[in-house]
Amino acid sequence: MDAPVTCTLLLLVGLVMLGVEGREGAFHPDSSKSEGAQKRPSRSSDSKAGRCSYTFIVPQQKLKGVLCVSTESARANSSETAALRTLLVRQQEQLDLLHRRLEQEGSLASEVRVLRRESSSMNARITQLYAQLLNEILHKQEQAKEQRRLEGLLLNATSQLLQMSKNYRDLERKYEALASTVSNQSQIMTHLEEHCQLCDIAKAQQDAASSAVNASASSPEPKPMVSYIQRDQSATQNQEETLQEVQEFFTPSSDLPTEAPFISYPVTKTPGPWQDCQHVLDSGENTSGIYLLRPRQSNRLLQAWCEHGRALGGWTVIQRRQDGSVNFFRNWEQYKQGFGNLDGEYWLGLEHLYWLTSQATYKLRVVMEDWQGRQVFAEYDSFRVEPESDWYRLRLGNYQGNAGDSLSWHSNKAFTTLDRDKDAYSGNCAHYQKGGWWYHMCAHSNLNGVWYRGGHYRSRYQDGVYWAEFHGGSYSLKKVMMMIKAI
Ligand SMILES: [Ca+2]
Fold first, then answer.
1. Strand, coil or helix: what is 281?
2. Are the beta carbons of 293 and 195 closer than 8 angstroms?
3. Relative to the CA of 440, which of 67, 115, 257, 416 has its CA 20 to 30 Å away?
4. What are residue 363's DSSP bridge partners?
5. Is the same domain home to 185 and 306?
6. Ligand 1 center from residue 418 Cα (angstroms)
7. Residue ranges of region Disordered (predicted)?
8. Domain end (from 138, 166, 194)
9. C-alpha of residue 389 to centroid of ligand 1, in Å
10. What domain range includes position 282?
């Protein structure tokens, strides 16, 4: 055969190799190339050897007529090809399946890795949460412990508060008891003070009566030097008796105690009556003593001590202190009418002063003596007392003397007693200074105070017989006399 036929045969062999994929094993080209294309190798010999048989279709060169092919052998090759194709498809399917499984397994592996990562992160998170939970539990335990401690403190504070409240209530009860006691004591003290005052008044009344008896017997005896305090103590011995006397003393229907002794006094000199002691002196009576007077334009008869032994005489004594025998802590009515003993301590009376000083121009002379016997005086060139409607207001002239001026401060001031407060002080000066006076707020002088023995005295108040310019306010003078004379 020629060269083109050989090339075609090689091509066919290549095609078969590709389609069968060597499944049939290696083929062995028949060495009998010399045989014609229409000839086939004997199959009988191949089948006997168990080998695959091959059919070579070699187109004839310059074949132009009908091609005749053996149908039996072609049918057999197509069936094998179909089988091979089926096998190939199945294997392809298996391969695809394997690919899919492989892909699935890969995705599963990635999912597993993701899950593992998530799991590890979840574990870390759980560990963190667990740690937080433990921390919270510990914190809660500490809080509970602190809360229990605070509850304990609160209970202690509550118990202490209850105890303090109980103590406070006890203190309140004690305070109320003390306040009640103090109130009762104050009431008792007030009652005792009033009682003492009444006793003094009764004692003074008794003194006045005894003085009247002594005067009628014309045998005046010097009274014992008894201090105000001492008389208070002695007066408490006959309290019921003196109280009864005091009640009678204060009843309006009873006779005025200051009027009766004055009127019952026998006139020691000529009968009179005179307008004042200057009138007595002018009438030739130059002996000091008790005289009956009747101011002009007045129907009032009064008795007074006329002092003719001092400063040229003619002086009408309106006040005298010398031994503390008379209580000067008196009410308005008594200061108005006068009280005391004409030959001892007495107060002439504001109403008498008004009538006397209304009939002429009078001057005032105050004579004082201390406990060393030193005598001084203060004189005012005019002295007048307004009527009761003006509270016996004091009108005073110019001062002269050697005692010092302790009365001008009281000029133009109303008179104040323990029961009629006309002073400028918020309280009653007569209460504090134990006597009626022309108080301002309160006084530079008070000759109607308590007669203390010995000069300097100790008292809660400035209540002695004092003249501030002469020994000061805490010195109670031994002898004092106020007297007036017409100019
Ligand atoms: Ca007052």
1. helix
2. no
3. 257
4. 485
5. no
6. 10
7. 26-49
8. 194
9. 18
10. 277-486
